[in-house]
């Protein structure tokens, strides 16, 4: 087993082009993911979770581009991660699973054929062997009667079954790291639990690295080892699941976690933290949570950067890090 991370994101900056200006929406995002490790990413809508995954994949939407930082990916077991240039699709090393399985499946193709073609694109596989591997992949993600379902079109499958197929498709690229953007949010709780189990099995059996974006703290508890909290385009806290979810240090992380119903209560999206995040046009150098924080003082108006999530340990970007850790009231 290697000590190299599989994926390293170092000072990632992403900007949206608007006429002559570029609006920075991801600002110095850094983290690393190792073999069999799952990094959970949480944060309010618009904080940059999806763009982080898309930038890592090299699949940013038109008009949005990587303007800084490095993405490094280990393509062979034991190999040090090497740089993926901006604009280059990470390809075989990374695969992505979206909330909406329609985003990855082709409505005009039988699901098995699509998976088999994806297997063949890796090279060195005959047509019949690719078909056999596609059936095996469908079976491995719990699709019943995989030889029959091979011939189904996406619209003939239920939402849960389609999401399994989307995962099989992602695995067909033989990725080293799987990027999951709310893959269970559209599913009911039972299906969600099944998909989480299946992702966990794939991770352990294949030694996959994983990034899992979710609004649901209960889901993050089940699947992640390390949790990063994002706010306004930066990582503002990172640590193990129990560090961050049980002992959050940043007032935003604390408010976000306190806003979630207890683990015995209904599981759902975050209730809102009062106020709203700043518009990217207003991102300055001060703490971006300033206006919503009940603990602000002049120190928060100085330069406050996001944290480098590649370093080990429980850390937060709050200038009061540690001193507010105990007895902090949610704002
Ligand atoms: N295609 C796009 N065009 C213009 N702006 C975009 C686009 N996609 C994202 N943005 C902007 O970039 C910022 C980050 O968006 P992103 O989609 O990464 O957020 P998110 O954390 O994934 O939110 P959600 O929880 O709602 O999925 C937001 O300000 C958003 O409005
Ligand atoms: Mg998103």
From TrEMBL:
Keywords: ATP-binding, Cell membrane, Membrane, Nucleotide-binding, Transport. Gene3D superfamilies: P-loop containing nucleotide triphosphate hydrolases. It is found in: Cell membrane. Pfam families: ABC_tran, oligo_HPY. The keyword Cell membrane applies. It comes from Sinosporangium album. NCBIfam families: oligo_HPY. This is Peptide/nickel transport system ATP-binding protein. PANTHER family: DIPEPTIDE TRANSPORT ATP-BINDING PROTEIN DPPD (PTHR43297:SF2), OLIGOPEPTIDE TRANSPORT ATP-BINDING PROTEIN APPD (PTHR43297). PROSITE patterns: ABC_TRANSPORTER_1, ABC_TRANSPORTER_2.
């Amino acid at each position: 087993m290697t000590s190299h991370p599989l994926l390293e994101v170092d000072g990632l900056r992403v900007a949206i082009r608007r006429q002559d200006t570029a609006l920075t929406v991801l600002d110095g995002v850094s983290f690393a993911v190792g073999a069999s490790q799952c990094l959970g990413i949480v944060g309010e809508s618009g904080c940059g979770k999806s763009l982080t995954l898309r930038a890592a994949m090299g699949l940013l939407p038109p008009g949005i581009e990587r303007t800084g930082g490095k993405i490094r990916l280990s393509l062979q077991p034991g190999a040090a991660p090497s740089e993926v240039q901006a604009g280059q699709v990470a390809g075989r090393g990374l695969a992505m699973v979206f909330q909406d399985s329609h985003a990855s499946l082709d409505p005009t193709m039988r699901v098995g054929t699509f998976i088999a073609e994806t297997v063949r694109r890796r090279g060195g596989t005959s047509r019949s062997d690719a078909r056999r591997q596609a059936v095996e992949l469908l079976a491995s993600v719990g699709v019943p009667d995989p030889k029959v379902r091979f011939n189904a079109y996406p619209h003939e499958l239920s939402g849960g079954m389609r999401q399994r197929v989307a995962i099989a498709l992602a695995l067909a690229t033989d990725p080293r790291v799987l990027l999951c953007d709310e893959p269970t949010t559209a599913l009911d709780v039972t299906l969600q639990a099944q998909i989480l189990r299946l992702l966990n099995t794939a991770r352990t059996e294949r030694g996959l690295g994983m990034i899992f974006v979710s609004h649901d703290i209960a889901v993050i508890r089940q699947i992640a080892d390390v949790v990063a909290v994002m706010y306004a385009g930066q990582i503002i806290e990172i640590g193990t699941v129990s560090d961050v979810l049980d002992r959050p240090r940043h007032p935003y992380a604390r408010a976000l976690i306190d806003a979630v119903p207890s683990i015995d209560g209904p599981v759902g999206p975050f209730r809102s933290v009062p106020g709203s995040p700043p518009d990217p046009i207003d991102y300055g150098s001060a703490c971006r949570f300033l206006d919503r924080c009940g603990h602000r003082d002049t120190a928060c108006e100085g330069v406050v950067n996001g944290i480098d999530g590649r370093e080990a340990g429980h850390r937060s970007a709050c200038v009061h890090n540690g001193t507010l850790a105990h007895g902090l009231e949610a704002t």
